[in-house]
UniProtKB/TrEMBL annotation, chain A:
The chain crosses the membrane at residues 36-59, 71-89, 95-116. Pfam families: DUF4395 (PF14340). This is DUF4395 domain-containing protein. Residues 4-126 form the DUF4395 domain. It comes from Nonomuraea maritima. Keywords: Membrane, Transmembrane, Transmembrane helix. InterPro entries: DUF4395, UCP030042. Coiled coil: none annotated.
Automatic annotation (TrEMBL), chain B:
Keywords: Isomerase. One of its GO terms (molecular function) is isomerase activity. Residues 47-127 form the Thioredoxin domain. InterPro entries: Thioredoxin-like_sf, Thioredoxin_domain. Pfam families: Thioredoxin. This is Thiol-disulfide isomerase or thioredoxin.
Length: 137, 138
């Protein structure tokens, strides 16, 4: 599946706004919404990207592999869920750090086009024990 | 909730990181001269120099990097371009200290890593690095 890079940037910008609003309001409902959006992005497409594609009908000048952004949505989902646990259980440091981490990644993607989640992939793989790597060869 | 100050502080931090990254991204720098053999790479070394690219499936700029390196290797005689899936060669990734994809290594004719770049390199920088790697031909 190919992805429209403009839709991905738009999605990252909306995600940044929503996560900033979560931090300001401390609303676990809003974070639940964003977690569901991340989950949609992992299994199919981000609803924000779909919204963009519904409004902007012009075709993109180029398309991207959809696997990197999908992986990044998964990273966002992990941080989102961790933040949600923090808010619901009243563990403020966890709530703030996890939500801020997701905001950091989304903002970097929106403003600079850097996919932090994608780049974490190799670091995470490197940290895994050697036994796992033997299998993958 | 202390979230009201985390909300503006995080984008500020992200902007700082982004600006630093923009400056450093793809910059070609000197390497330590580790020697790689054809066995290490799983491919034959280029006659005069070799461009080694580490990629992963979850890497946006890898495709653009591939295009640049393929162009350069077609342009400069005796230079080959090898792309390695970082995930299937974690031994090499650890040995060479590769933390990001794409990472590009410029090897001289003996397989010594003379230059390296993390992130999408500029074509002109790769050409300059190659000129250095091939002119030092011993």
């Amino acid at each position: 599946m190919r992805a429209d890079p403009r839709a991905l940037r738009f999605g990252a910008a909306v995600t940044s706004l929503v996560l900033a609003a979560v931090l300001v309001t401390g609303s676990s409902g809003l974070l639940t919404f964003q977690v569901l959006v991340f989950a949609c992005g992992v299994v199919w497409r981000s609803p924000y990207a779909l919204l963009f594609m519904a409004v902007v009908r012009s075709a993109p000048t180029y398309t991207e592999d959809s696997r990197p952004p999908r992986f990044a949505q998964g990273v966002g989902l992990v941080f989102g869920v961790a933040g949600l646990i923090g808010y619901l259980a009243g563990i403020t440091p966890l709530a703030l750090v996890a939500t801020a981490a997701a905001l950091l990644a989304a903002f970097l993607n929106a403003a600079f086009g850097f996919c932090l989640g994608c780049e974490m992939y190799l670091l995470v793989r490197r940290l895994l024990p050697a036994a796992t790597t033997e299998v993958s060869q | 909730m202390a979230g009201w100050w985390v909300a503006p502080a995080t984008p500020a931090l992200a902007t700082t990181i982004g600006v630093i990254r923009l400056r450093r991204d793809g910059r070609v720098r000197d390497s330590d001269g580790t020697r790689l053999s054809a066995d290490d790479l799983g491919a034959v070394l280029g006659e005069r120099a070799t461009l080694v690219q580490f990629s992963t499936a979850f890497c946006q700029p890898c495709r653009a990097t591939r295009r640049i390196l393929a162009d350069v290797s077609a342009l400069v005689p005796g230079v080959s371009h090898i792309e390695i899936d970082a995930e299937s060669r974690l031994d090499l990734v650890r040995r060479l200290g590769v933390v990001r994809t794409p990472t590009v290594l410029v090897l001289d004719s003996t397989g010594a890593v003379v230059k390296q770049a993390a992130g999408l390199p500029r074509k002109a920088d790769v050409l300059v690095a190659l000129a250095g790697a091939t002119s030092e031909d011993r």
